[in-house]
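Re: Re: token formats

Sure, here are both.
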Amino acid sequence: MNQQASEYEERILVTGGTGHLGRDIVGQLVDGGRRVRVLARLPGDDPSVEWARGDLSTGAGLRQALTGITTVVNAATFSPIAQRGSLRLVDFFKTPSSVDVDGTRRLIDECRHAGVRHFLHVSIVGLDDAAASLPYNKVKLQGENLIRQSDLPWALVRAGQFYYLLARLFASMRWMPWWMLPNAAMSPVDTVDVASHLIDCVNDGKLGIRDEIGGPKALPFTELAREYLQSRRLNRRVIGFNIAPRTAARLGFTEAHGRKGVVTWQEWLATNADEPKGRVRRTPLTPAPFVHSRRGEK
């Protein structure tokens, strides 16, 4: 897909476009002069994009949203753990599949009907049959497999844990005087860097498995916690313990291999405040105007 074709013909649909990553994707695409449509259960009124009312979990509005679309960036997901910012017993047994599996299947079918020429799917690092022990990881892997087995012209990008989710998790632990945490390493990353990588993948149009993306440096989970506490001027004792690599992978402690972001965890912490305590949303938030952020900017 050459640049001239993208300028004059390409129209991009972003699913999950009102979420943290989705907003960075849309903002950067708009900054680049691209024609962007956002699928949302609750459309906003930002005139810089086209809005399409639709819902992956039910399939409502998908066919209309894909009319005239040449490229899809599927950044939609639903994780109660991520929304809540904490892990509960129920999360070890079940997680909703209505978006990541059923919604992906519906989207594939409608993209085939619409003749979409480039389907870019966003997933998470470390997924395989052995490592996908958490139900959320299992549904993400099922969604990936639907993409891989489809006859769409697809591409797949796996990303590390997002910084904002890590901060949300640590914020939920503030009440604990001692933090018992594994020493396993992981590669969290800023959503701005992930969006930049995804847009590069849109621009070059290459298909198949693309480079993973993580932060500039993989760090032990204990070190990430200590840097969070230092930035928030909190006095908590972090006690590390070792776990087997296989166990670490099954719990989501995985390093990303491939592209590295430029925004460090310390830089992100210095420019971002903790969000309000999370809870699982059953209704969509009202979309706000897009802030067009480039790599490394906030």
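Second one below.
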Amino acid sequence: MDSHRFDAGVYARRLAAAAAATAEAGLTGLVITPGYDLRYLVGSRAQTFERLTALVLPASGDPAVVVPRLELASLKGSAVAELGLAVRDWVDGEDPYQLVGGALGVLPILATDVLRGLRMVKEECEIDALRKAGAAIDRVHARVPEFLRPGRTEADVAADIAEAIVAEGHSEVAFIIVGSGPHAADPHHSHSDRELQVGDIVVVDIGGAYDPGYHSDSTRTYSIGEPKADVAERYSVLHRAQRAAVDAVRPGVTAEQVDAAARDVLAEAGLAEFFVHRTGHGIGLSVHEEPYIVAGNDLQLTAGMAFSIEPGIYFPGRWGARIEDIVVVTEDGALAVNNRPHELFVVPVS
């Protein structure tokens, strides 16, 4: 494995922890097919095809990988060889499910919750990867103002940002939102042929995968020319709401309490109805994963959890704004991996 990947010791610890969690859940074992869980456990980026590929992880005993012989190459670049895992390959005409069943001897059931707790709490190497991804996307945001010129389309800006995301070290682009003017009021707008205009508020929400596959995700809001007084005033409230939520993060606090910290600031200013989504989502190998920072989630935060803090305000047909950082829960608070200024950035126009 190259220097950007985790060493085999990291994956060995994860396999042991997953086996222990499996036993604690009263299960005989896990069968993990290609996806983020498989990447988490052995570093494999194998894809799902019609032929079965799976990690078989008994609660007690040695794990093995079941893989079609013609897909053996898909294990290269993973930690399978370094871990010394048994590889049981099969060819068309054989029954791979017998290989899985023989290793476990039981009827499989969904075991998502077993790995949920492991993936939510990041190890130091994962936190380091998230910090590098956060710094890379910060560098992209530093370049965004040069792309925001009146007469250019949102799509033009998005193309420049896509190039910058890769240029600043990401292995791939995950998503790009460039919402200008009334489009900024749509939290999930992508980008369009609308031309930027003087006076526009522009929401730029961007992210990508940074080797070894951990994601960045950060939003900043820009004003092309000086904003109107009421826009500046409402944005300042949003700024305080985002800060309040970050300040609320610490071990023992629940996810819904962090959500409430942002929502309460907006409510006090009469803006609660314009905040229409959750305050945040977990992030790691997937852009969106647990924990979710939302009302009704009484999950207590634990050091090592990583998630976004991204309150927004949206005024349909007019404008919108969002501020987003990824934070990691520490023993006494929150560590932000994004460090660009949070103020409404005014792009000067001639």
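The mean pLDDT is 94. The CA atoms of residues 263 and 272 lie 6 Å apart.
- S.
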